[in-house]
Specification:
6-stranded mixed beta sheet, OB fold (Dihydrolipoamide Acetyltransferase, E2P), 5-stranded antiparallel beta sheet, alpha+beta, Rossmann fold
Length: 379
């Protein structure tokens, strides 16, 4: 699939603060591409440079092969949907949607046809004559999207579009956005700090931190194969094991000596050497939890522990298990026979097992491995 947008070594500073630093990325035509990261990471500034509201200090922004980095917003074929909707309160839903075409002087019959098409798309014909104050937050967001799409941009930019909505409405609007994208087929660039939004909607995600892209990939790639500790902790929950490479087992596996736990077998995501300090990331759902000590093959790890905390969440139960000085976050899925089982309870002695392939070696660290385990992921 060809690229519709290419950003090449873009930089932006406000005074002495560099908020975007040498960012390069490519967005495929027709995909949903998310810029994900915490507040202040540079994602909104990057979106504003794509829109034309800010100009980069250096670098190129190529839209269909043309550098638009220094062009004003009205000369770029992109439109933006903002968090606060930015609807005109004195205009009806239909008139808000029609505003852009009327400003361009389009024929009345063309405007009516396009507004009708947009009302079909957002399923709001019955609300066409209402003012923004008479409709819900989710409906306002759909109107804002229709107003942006009616001008047929090459790219729709969405800046934290669901941040003002409650949880249930956000979940509904994610489905609506996915449906609208499938129907119109244009490229969406979506800015959010919410990992669940990005994971559920996106084809590709760029995770930003302090003005740079930490990792770019599909949702599965950034979740299953995080490249850095920041990505591992920002996308979902994880358990971190700081340790030292004790030995290398062929080209695929190595043993890590983790203070307080002993040796752990891990897959080599990248070549490592004996004596190297590393951090292993292991997602909560990768553990198997049992009361009885299981018999495991040599490719699996086995740890004894004690249940410290239990959090029942309906569809799943989360456990915090003490293993030496570590407190490990463990996820166990429920099944329909749960009420017939003898449940694992607080202070029970348990066993944790996981396959060596399920952990990810993140990066080398300077100095000696930490002797105090990281338990930040535990509730």
């Amino acid at each position: 699939m060809e690229s519709i947008l290419e950003i090449k070594t873009v930089n932006k500073a406000f005074g002495a603060q560099r908020v975007v630093r040498d960012v390069s990325l490519s967005v495929k035509r027709g995909e949903v591409f998310s810029l994900l990261g915490p507040s202040g990471c540079g994602k909104t500034t990057l979106l504003r440079m794509i829109a034309g509201f800010e100009r980069p200090d250096s670098g190129s922004i190529l839209l269909d092969g043309t550098d638009v980095a220094q062009l004003p917003p009205n000369r770029r074929q992109v439109n933006t949907v903002f968090q606060n909707y930015a609807l005109f309160p004195h205009l009806s839903v239909a008139d808000n949607i029609a505003f852009g075409l009327r400003a361009e002087g389009k024929p009345k019959i063309e405007i009516q046809e396009e507004v009708h098409r947009m009302l079909d798309l957002i399923r709001m014909h019955e609300h066409a004559h209402k003012k923004p104050s008479q409709i819900s937050g989710g409906q306002k967001q759909r109107v804002a999207i229709a107003r942006a799409l009616i001008k047929k941009p090459k790219i729709l930019l969405l800046d934290e579009p669901l941040a003002a909505l409650d949880l249930k409405l956000r979940q509904h609007m994610l489905l609506e956005l996915d449906r609208i994208h499938d129907e119109v087929g244009i490229t969406f660039i979506y800015v959010t700090h919410d990992q669940d939004e990005a994971m559920s909607l996106s084809d590709h995600i760029a995770i930003m931190n302090e003005g740079v892209i930490e990792q770019l990939g599909t949702p599965a790639e950034v979740y299953e194969l995080p490249k850095s500790r920041f990505v591992a902790e920002f996308i979902g929950d994880t358990n971190l094991f700081p340790g030292k490479v004790a030995s290398v087992e062929g080209s695929d596996y190595c043993h890590l000596e983790v203070p307080g736990l002993g040796k752990i077998l891990a897959y080599q995501d990248r070549p490592v050497a004996p004596g190297e300090n590393v951090t292993l990331s292991l997602r909560p759902e990768k553990f198997n939890l049992s009361r009885e000590k299981p018999t495991v093959p040599s490719i699996q790890n086995l740890l004894p522990g004690v249940v410290d905390t239990i959090i029942y969440m309906g569809s799943e139960t989360r456990y915090v298990v003490r293993c030496g000085e570590f407190k490990l976050n463990v996820l166990r899925q429920h099944n329909r026979c749960l009420l017939e089982e003898k449940p694992i309870t607080w202070e029970d002695s348990v066993w944790l097992t996981w396959h060596a392939d399920d952990g990810n070696i993140l990066q080398s660290t300077n100095g000696t491995p930490a002797t105090t385990p990281n338990a930040d992921s535990a509730p």
